[in-house]
TrEMBL record:
The keyword Membrane applies. The keyword Membrane applies. It comes from the Bacteria. This is MFS transporter. InterPro entries: MFS, MFS_Cyanate_Porter, MFS_dom, MFS_trans_sf. It is a multi-pass membrane protein. Keywords: Membrane, Transmembrane, Transmembrane helix. PANTHER family: 2-NITROIMIDAZOLE TRANSPORTER, PTHR23523. GO terms for cellular component: plasma membrane. It is found in: Cell membrane. Residues 14-397 form the Major facilitator superfamily (MFS) profile domain. It holds the Pfam family MFS_1. It comes from Microbacterium rhizomatis. The lineage of its organism: Bacteria, Bacillati, Actinomycetota, Actinomycetes, Micrococcales.
């Protein structure tokens, strides 16, 4: 597809830039702010294991379910109004969670948040594609890096703030940012409605999402996204225990190494989208993710007590497939409806696959009593991404693939 002529980022799009940044930050801070406070919350009321388990497995499940539903919602409301609804629900969910008197209320608020975040995840790539067709790489870099920083901040400051005040304040304060994020999107929604009233806009077809199942490029993006997300969710769930068991580190050091794994997402989010849009480095980035992932897993299997930090840091580069796929969602669609459908399809199926891995890795560990088989399975996941790089690197779109195979879009 031809490159869009670039124009200054802020010219006529200041509200969109601010809105996308605040939207991205609110989505991730809402998700990352709860788990560091569980120990403090249990001092006020009991948290049954089944509720903690549901909270842990809910994100990818909600993302998968609402990834399927979001294109339908978007057809009814439009991108901007749906962004407003998503942020409003996130805000309400965080308020409910912040004032939760018991575990059930905490679970209810968390469910609202994850449902809305599932919608927001799908909206971000099409929003970038709509407002910044000439700056897809830059804006994907901005919002994916914002998400990485927003994932790191709550674990760093949440507990100190809770200890200085109360866990309810620490948990509920993020609702303020979500409420602030509503402001630009209310303005954008009003603009979009005014523009729609002046021009006849054809509504997206409900059949577009169904076409994704028959497009190899869409499936290639699913595999890439699923590989990155599966490694990330499995690592966040089990890396500390794995390191305690195999590397002999203390729980505190294991936690610091998990933070190192998460921190590697920041440079990946900064570089991957720009390298793809400017230098078409899709295949090279897939190769980097595969090589570093496989070397890291081999190190954790054969030399876990030697250079442990290196293996963890290298493993942290494998999820660069996440920002890489996000920028490709904007580049591999030519139309608005194609962008929404592709984003919904890739993220819903990808998250559904990723949701299996935290549980599956735990079951394999329990069955074998060790970590070798789980690590071999994760190595197979990394290897599965290698051929995908050749599929998604082709500079084509889902619309063009459909037209070659099935006729007019």
């Amino acid at each position: 597809m031809p490159d869009e002529p670039a124009r200054p980022l802020w010219r006529g799009r200041t509200l969109a830039v601010v809105g996308i940044v605040l939207f991205a930050f609110s989505l991730r801070s809402a998700v990352a702010s709860l788990s560091p406070l569980i120990a403090l919350i249990t001092l006020d009321f009991p948290m049954p294991a089944w509720i903690i388990g549901l909270i842990g497995t809910a994100p990818p499940v909600c993302y998968a379910v609402f990834g399927i539903l979001t294109p339908m919602f978007e057809r009814r409301l439009g991108l901007e109004r749906l962004a407003v609804v998503s942020l409003a629900v996130v805000t309400v969910g965080m308020v409910v969670r912040g004032f939760a008197p018991d575990a059930i209320a905490l679970l209810l608020g968390t469910a609202l948040i994850f449902a809305a975040v599932g919608v927001g995840n799908i909206l971000l790539p099409p929003l970038v594609r709509t407002y910044f067709p000439d700056r897809i790489g830059l804006m994907t870099t901005i919002f994916s890096t914002t998400m990485a920083i927003a994932t790191l901040m709550p674990p760093l400051i949440g507990v100190p703030i809770a200890e200085a005040t109360h866990w309810q304040f620490s948990l509920g304060m993020w609702a303020i940012l979500a409420a602030v994020a509503l402001v630009p999107w209310i303005g954008m929604s009003m603009r979009a409605q005014a523009a729609a009233s002046e021009a006849a806009i054809e509504p997206p077809s409900a059949r577009v999402f169904e076409r994704m199942w028959r497009i190899p490029l869409a499936w290639g993006l699913v595999v890439g996204f699923a590989c990155g997300a599966s490694i990330a969710y499995a690592t966040f769930a089990w890396l500390p225990q794995l390191l305690v068991d195999t590397a002999g580190v203390t729980p505190a050091i294991a936690g610091a190494l998990l933070a190192l794994f998460a921190a590697m997402g920041v440079p990946a989010s900064l570089l991957a989208p720009l390298l793809v849009t400017r230098y078409h480095a899709t295949q090279a980035l897939f190769a980097v993710a595969a090589v570093t992932g496989l070397v890291a897993i081999a190190g954790l299997i054969f030399l876990p007590q030697t250079l442990t930090w290196l293996w963890v840091g290298m493993l942290g580069l494998e999820p660069l497939l996440f920002p890489l796929t996000l920028v490709l969602l904007g580049l591999r669609a030519r139309t608005h409806e194609g962008s929404v459908a592709l984003s919904g399809f890739v993220q819903s199926v990808g998250y559904a696959i990723a949701a299996l891995f935290p549980v599956g890795i735990g079951l394999m560990h329990d069955a074998t009593g060790g970590w070798t088989l789980p690590l071999i399975v994760l190595a197979a996941v990394v290897a599965a991404s290698i051929p995908t790089g050749f599929v998604v690197a082709r500079r084509t779109t889902i619309e063009q693939e459909w037209e070659r195979r099935h006729g007019s879009w």
